[in-house]
Design goal:
3 helices, mainly alpha, single chain
């Protein structure tokens, strides 16, 4: 769990944490419990780098070897405007 806090930080993740902190601060300022909980959820998701699919749930496997693609002859047909 603590490994997810230390690594893989990018600009978008920092912005999401900042938005979560901003929502929490606005909730405290307005005495709104729902905003505090919502900001905590959004900030926690950004802080621990999880989302709807989990940590890198939608990422592709970059270590997967690609299979060779058999090249095929492609034929093209010229399209002209008939007036």
């Amino acid at each position: 769990m603590f490994e997810s806090l230390k690594g893989n930080w990018n600009l978008f993740r920092v912005i999401r944490v900042a938005i979560g902190v901003f929502i929490i601060a606005q909730g405290v300022y307005a005495y709104d419990t729902f905003s505090i909980v919502l900001g905590s959820v959004f900030g926690g998701m950004a802080l621990f780098n999880v989302g709807c699919c989990g940590a890198n749930g939608c990422a592709t496997d970059i270590h997967q070897t690609s299979k060779s693609v058999i090249s095929q002859e492609i034929s093209y047909e010229e399209v002209v405007d008939k007036k």
